Amino acid sequence: YQRRVHGILNAADENNDGLITSQELAAAVERQPSLKERLNVLAVNLAFQPENRFLGDKGTEYEIQERLDSIANNIDKNHDGYFSAEELKTMSPSAKNSLEKIGIHVHV
Hints:
Layout: H1 2-12, H2 22-31, H3 34-47, H4 61-75, H5 85-89, H6 93-101
């Protein structure tokens, strides 16, 4: 997973300063359109990490975790703990709607 993140960062960081400006990111997506999909997949995976959860949701931490686990089980077909672009593309409309309701928008 970390290799994927580093690959995305390296593709966008034109001057190799370890930072990505909005201009670098826009240029990277223009040069490599598949990068946009990879960034969207990364965003969804990051949203499911405990430290990045949507905090404005109603319910206790336990209730939020139960909902996320239920959604994840429906999307993560190979049960590796991460969502691939293919899994996100083929998720059911109800799973996509559930993600939207908790503030996670999928654009792949």
